[in-house]
Amino acid sequence: MVSLADLPEAPLDGTCTHCGASITRGYVVASETAEGYAFEMETAVCDTCGWTDVGATGCAPTLSDFETGDLLVRVERDEGALRPAAVTDERS
Ligand SMILES: [Zn+2]
């Protein structure tokens, strides 16, 4: 199992790649690299798009919905910065 401690601590500058809105709560894929996990911000989506455009309608998205990466990470904005909140799915 991968934990939040394995992810980069730097806050993310998250814009939803589907609707262009600044992400308050959403999802982003992370991939394992030689330097540890890195976020793939081109996969970032807000909750609304994640649940309607990416995931099966009415369901939270899963990693397989993105067709890339090793982890799906829940992100939430806290004190103005978007930060990882939970690892919700990982490549099995
Ligand atoms: Zn969106």
SSE arrangement:
Blueprint: E1 25-33, E2 36-46, H1 47-54, E3 71-78, E4 81-90
Antiparallel strand pairs: 1-2, 1-3, 3-4
Zinc ion (ZN) binds next to strand 2 and helix 1.
How would you concisely characterize the structure shown here?
The protein is mainly beta.
How would you explain this protein's 3D organization?
By secondary structure, the chain is mostly beta strands. It has one domain. It is 9% helix and 41% strand. The chain has a 4-stranded antiparallel sheet with strand order 2-1-3-4. The longest helix is centred in the middle third of the chain and has 8 residues. The radius of gyration is 12 Å and the shape is globular. The termini are close together. The model has no long low-confidence stretch (mean pLDDT 92).
Number of helices: 1
What oligomeric state is this? Answer: single chain
Give the bound compounds. Answer: zinc ion
Q: Tally the beta strands.
A: 4
Average pLDDT taken over every residue: 92
Helix content: under 10%
How many domains, as an integer?
1
Tags for this model:
92 residues, mainly beta, four-stranded antiparallel sheet, 41% strand, binds zinc ion
